[in-house]
Amino acid sequence: MEQTLYDLGEHIHGALPDEVLSVLDEGGELVLYVKTESIVRVLNFLRDDSACRFKVLIDICGVDYPERPKRFEVVYQLLSIAQNHRVRVKVETDESTPVPSVTGIHSTAGWFEREVWDMFGIMFSDHPDLRRILTDYGFEGYPLRKDFPLTGFVELRYDDELKRVVYEPVKLSQEYRSFDFLSPWEGLQHILPGDEKADTPEEKS
Questions:
Q1: Which of 49, 119, 122, 187 fits a disulfide with 144 by CB distance 3.0 to 4.6 angstroms?
Q2: What is the pLDDT of residues 10-29, one digit of tens each?
């Protein structure tokens, strides 16, 4: 990690010693592990502090670790245009403990938090409109959880003949394929039209 990012991490941890649990270098990037109940205060500091100025919330995503007591991580990706820095903030939660919504700090968090709720079932307290955003209203389960089954659910589509929305069992139309991971040049077994022109005739002695 660059010295400037290391110094920034020390600055953030020094300003919020009770909220920031650890400051790490993961792949050359600054990562903050934060208490779940402190996420609003931390993001507010990162936005307003003159040394940080992380005013752009790029994304919020979820990660599922079923073997952990707190199986979910909520990851916030922030950008400081003024300082040309990025920071990743992580909090942990379980299936029943909500994470405080940060929509009051970053308005873009509204849709991001809805997507995390829709895909993982992670709740956000004080969210103004926490409902599904990618799946339909009658969908059951959370598709990006590691224990979500691939079959046994229904899919929603519009039927042109019936002129209405219909529910049908999920069908995996593509059969299992075995990949050899060869490039098109290595795995090609036949000559493409035009390739025969590349063969140069042997010179006559």
A1: 119
A2: 999 999 999 999 999 888 88
The superfamily CATH assigns to domain 3-136 is: NADH:ubiquinone oxidoreductase Nqo5 subunit (3.30.460.80)
What confidence tens digit (pLDDT) does each residue in 110-145 have? 999 999 999 999 999 999 999 999 987 778 889 999
Q: Where are the domains of the chain?
A: 3-136
pTM of the model as a whole = 0.76
